[in-house]
Queue: 2 jobs
Job 1
Amino acid sequence: MSIFERLDRIASGTADAVASVRFEVHPAKASPNGRPGPDPNREVWDGRGIFDENPTDAPVEIGNRNRAGNDLRTPVNGSRYELSVDRARFRQADRAKQGDRIWLDDLRKFEILSVQPDGLSRVVFQLAELRATAP
């Protein structure tokens, strides 16, 4: 084990002890009609990880009505959500897949957009918040 792996293990444990939140992962499986449903082959698991919510601005192309053409000057404000999980403490994190649902303690629900290993001892879930929409 290299010195960097030891330092990463120490830093990861300290960060989890100080800033982690509890979550539950509900495995999902896409059905033939495209709607996700529960995956009967994988079980629900809970863990702790570092949750980041960062503001983000994205330019959106819209139709400009003054004959100047489309432009990218319309920023859309939103948030980018990430959840970093220690793979050594939570082995199930390696089996998480795109489309799985995550429930936080504050009752917010998210869907995993991508699962990205950070190259060391953690895995980062890119998330999208699920909100109820009015009919």
Job 2
Amino acid sequence: MIVKKLLPIKAHYFFFLAALGPILPQLQVFGRELGISSVVMGSVTGILPFVYLLAKPFFGMVVDIHREYRKCIFMGLIVIMAVSYGCIIFIPLKSAKFYEVKVGEVISKCERTMNNNTIFEEAECVSENSIKLNKFQLYFPAEDPENISICSARQELNAEILASTFKCRKLPEVSIDLLSESLSFWFFIAQLSIGTVAFNVINSISDAVCFDVIGDEYDYGKQRTWGAVGYGIAAIVSGYAMDFLPHNFGGYRAAIFIMLLFIILDLVSCLKLKLPIIPAPDNIWKELAYLLKHNDVCIFLIFTIISGVADGFLTYFLLWYVEDISELSGTKNIKFLEGLIIAAQTFGGGILFFYIGDNIKKKLGHINCFSLCFLCYALRLFLISIASPWVIIAIEFFLQGPTFSLSYLTIVAYANDIASAGTSATMQGIAAGLDDGLGYALGSLIGGILYRFVGASQTFQIFGAISALAAISHFAFTNGGSKRRSQ
């Protein structure tokens, strides 16, 4: 049975998240291709969520107080997000350079013009059978002021090289000193910041608007499912377009164009939204203070942060990790592979758990649902750490649902349940601010540092261990509290 009044909110979720499917997973990778290291990128995306930690509750409160302007505020933020992300298309990218040489052969394919100075170039050698041989620096000495062309390097390995050929990749990573002087870097950071803050605020307001529209009559998950469908379709289409369309139409240009098309359709959908009239609360601060006095609410908010840590790390570093292991293994069509991973997340458990999540929550309760989510996060992170690029598709197909989808549904539904009349947007803003605000900040910052200095797969295993500990702790705290109250 089709309910006409629900079509605009379904369409909004579909088109809004379809607009983000091509661009959101690629932001970290785009920064990587600008030469930004995982530490710098992790620091930027780690600081940024602190902004929307404040922005989400603030805009939620504005929407709750000025409810007659909900739609205008909502659509204005969508336009700001689209313009900010769209401007990224104007930033020129750095490209990694590959030199291929047989063992025992002298590399003579690189050329460098220099003055009287010393230059170090970092390179990474990878064998054809996917074994990382070594990372070393090329040393270019110059003793006179005349321009010279030279490329020489000596490397001694205490191992027998079995591969007949290997590739050397010149890493495009740029030092922090040079980045700070780069207009491209600061322009990217500005657009990333504005777009991401706007997106996160829109996301929490969307959920509040959805609950206003459906009331107690319909399930939230069945509306939000359409967002997952749109996200997955757009991700796989854009991944294909980025890899296989001609240069003038492919790459990140294709992702931006697809995003803008869906944004236009989303704005049309928003115009059709009919929002019910709900009176503003008399004293919103008093309502919030009353809620935060309850231990159950505080425990929920603390573990909401931890959920955000796990999901934030995966959001920011999964595709970065896929790019790294794909290059080491010689995997082709990486962008298309990344599109398939996003599609697997969506069309596997992602859609299913959004659709049946309300039934699971009613049967298990939000407490046990949350504990289950942490356990599944631990399994997902550990499996990714030992998987090949194509196997990651299967992992995401089965485990995106019981991790992200179910935890998101649990957080949003519980925040709506505890919110008093007229404070839904504010409560959604607080919960979302802690989840993909503070949680994402910690996940990105800690993840970026560990990824650089501990190692990629080891970092996934560390976050898996944190998730397992969170599952045990959450179950112990919440079930222990329930037993004490029953006594």
